[in-house]
Amino acid sequence: MVRMGMFGRGLAVAGLAWLACNAFAADAGSPVGSSNVTTADPAVPRPPGQPCVVQLFQDDVFNDFGTRPFNYAPPAGCGTRWSKVVLEADFSVTAGRQYDRTGSIWLGGVNLYFGTTEEPSSKVAPSWHVERDLTDYSALFRNAGQGQAILWNLVNDTYTGVIHGSARLLFYPASALAPAAHAPDAVIALGSDAVGSPAELDHPDSQLAKTLTLPRNVERAYLDVIAQSQSGDEFWYTCVPDAYAGEVQECGGGNFREAEVSIDGQPAGVAPVYPWIYTGGIDPYLWRPVTGVQTLNFTPYRVDLSPFAGVLSDGAPHTVAVSVAGANNYFSAAASLLLYLDPHATQVTGRVTRNTLAGQAPTPTIGDTLKTDASGNVSGDITTKLSRQFVIEGYADTSHGRVRTTVRQTVGFADTQGFVIDAGTYRQATDQLTWADGTSERRVGGFVLGTDHQSVRYPLHLVYAQTVAADGSIAVATTVHQGYRQHGVRSLGGIPLYESRVDNTVDTADTLDFDAGGHLTAHTGQGSAQAFDFRDSLGSCYRATVQSKDGAVSGFSEGHGCPGGRNHVAWFARPDGSPTAGGSLLDW
Question: Does pTM top 0.90 for this prediction?
């Protein structure tokens, strides 16, 4: 369904039909005319039955730089295995002036939520609702623990917006219609904070790392990674290599960013970094009331570390680490290790037999066609490109035989920054694409247990055009296109069992007008549109669009193009594109 809120600096200034059910609540009414936060993102689909609810915190006030601790206890009388676990959170900010802020929720050191806030205005006090499917984290929720919410917010006579927030976990008991999920057996935080907090990665050598002695029967391992740009890195996607920064009047440090995963210093995987744009980014009017892709609720990227399962099971300490190639002050990172254990073995052995990622440094190729004439006018492009293919293979001797896991991946980055700079014009056009194509295969002897293929594409097109009139007034026009595209296929013996596609795009534009003294006098031409499309091979279909004009919702639709003209998503699907662990069919 189209999500409306319920209650924030810039460059310029066929066989499972019996499990399917309609997962979404009834239409809450048209949001047309509303100035409140509105997106086309889907809710987390739900299984049948009533959930058990655990409130994490209720109407906490975020008006300083302190954390908000909470105590957690498992839901009473709800069992210890659930068909689904969902985090729901509601946030609001009072009308006034406030930056976008980063929020995160943690339990026992593990990240449950990571996102940013909507900026308010003098007349609009925005509110919004976010959800995250945390079924894969079920093992974490079986024991009591300490958690905290972190949402640092400066409130004074200038920045007046006060943020409020609530969060709860919903546990759906397993039933005949909704069996218990085949979730990981252990969830381990990578950070050193026992309660949980983001790690600051200031430069490429900075690491979010933890040395662990793991259970001796690890059969599969995955790492969920979130790397969020902050401070000088907030607009990394528009930066240029240091050698060009002065000439084109842009931030230095280059614009290639990629999260690198290592085990004991050995490259173990790659997580592409999404170019999230926050609601104060570039021009705040661009994001009112339709936000950028995932701005309020980041989706982690899951790295398959299963080739290392035999190594991780040897009883020795191992260091798992995440860094960000190109980090230039700074990235805020979170990572959680998910383990599947062999229930019939006390000791799994094995080793990594092939790793072609080792020795492939994440060093992009830089090129340019820049020209500077005698008057100092600059025109031309700066290009940044990198593409790597690698294979990591290993085996684990388990109770059901030697399991060989092969991870093949191609990761790439292509960026062109085009400039036109003269006495009356500063124009920068960013064309960028980050992509990853990966396949994980598990086999015992000649029998393929399962093959998972995933492709992701993160396109970004951004044009920033500043023109100076004869009277010294300035117009700054910005257009942005963002996309999040994902295609996943799960196969057995070469036969596809399940396939899904996600396509989430946001297009937005606005022009800021300044007088000769640099004071903002108006903004014109604000308009935005988001389109969200999810489909799977079992008949799920979710489509929603929302448009805005001059800061208010001007149109929306839902279900158009789906059978019967309505959204219908199986309860076990992940229409937002959030990762699954891979294993048995659909993990149930």
Answer: yes
